[in-house]
Amino acid sequence: MALREFEAAVDKDKKNPYFRKGLGVTYLRLNQPGKAVEELREALKLNPYYVDVRHDLGTALILLGKREEGKQEFMIAFNDPTNPTPEIAAANLGRAHFEERNYVQALSWYRTAVGRNKGFAEAHLGIADCLTALGRPDEAIAQLEIGLQEVPDNPALMLALGEALYRAGRLSEARERLEATASKDPGGPSGHRAAQLLQAFPK
C-alpha cells in the first residue's frame, strides 16, 4: 500500500523531494536497494540540504555491496552542521565497521554516537557488541548498565544485559533481568526472546 501511495504521489509531483524519499525508503524496506538508491539520489538532487536522506542512501548502497560509497554518505551526514541527528550517522558508521569486523573503529563510532545522544539505546547496544567481540565482556555488561541508567526499561537493553549476564555465568542476575524483560515487553521481540532464554534455566 505504501508503495502504491508513494508512486502515485511521485507521479503527481516529480519534483517533491519528500515524496522521493518516501518512495526510496519504501523500496529499501521491500529489499530493492537499487531502486531505493535511484529515488534517494533524486531526492538529494531536488534538495541538497535534505541531510536525512543520506542515512537511507548510505544503507541502500551498503546493501548493494557499495560499502565505501555507503560509509561516505554516512560521513557526509555526520559532518553536516544542519544534521539534527548526527548520532544516527555515527551509529550507522559503527554498524558498517562492525559488519566488516573492524571492531575498534566500530567502537569509536558508537561511542561518538553516545557522546552526541546519551539516550540513544542503539549506540549503547553497539558499544556492548563491540566490547564483547573484543573479548571484554565485563566492560560490555557495564556499558549496558550505563545504557539502562540513561534509558530505563528499554526492552532491547534489558534483554542484552540479561544475555550478557547469562554468558558470564551470573545466572541469578540474568534471570532477574530476563524476567523483567519478558514482563515489560510480553508481545514484543525482546520479551519473546527473553521468554525463550528463561526456558533454558533450571526450574
Span of the ends, CA to CA = 47 Å
Query: Class of the domain at 1-84, according to the CATH hierarchy?
Result: Mainly Alpha
Beta content comes to under 5%
Give me the count of strands.
0
Give the count of helical stretches. 12
Short description:
The chain has 203 residues and is an all-alpha fold. 76% of the residues lie in helices and 0% in strands.
What report would you give on this structure?
The chain is an all-alpha fold. The chain has a domain at 1-84: Serine Threonine Protein Phosphatase 5, Tetratricopeptide repeat (Alpha Horseshoe). Helix content is 76%, strand content 0%. The protein contains twelve helices and no strands.
Summarize the helices and strands and which ones pair or pack:
Elements: H1 2-12, H2 17-29, H3 33-46, H4 52-63, H5 67-79, H6 86-99, H7 103-116, H8 121-133, H9 137-150, H10 155-167, H11 171-184, H12 189-198
Relevant terms:
single chain, 203 residues, mainly alpha, Serine Threonine Protein Phosphatase 5, Tetratricopeptide repeat, 76% helix, elongated
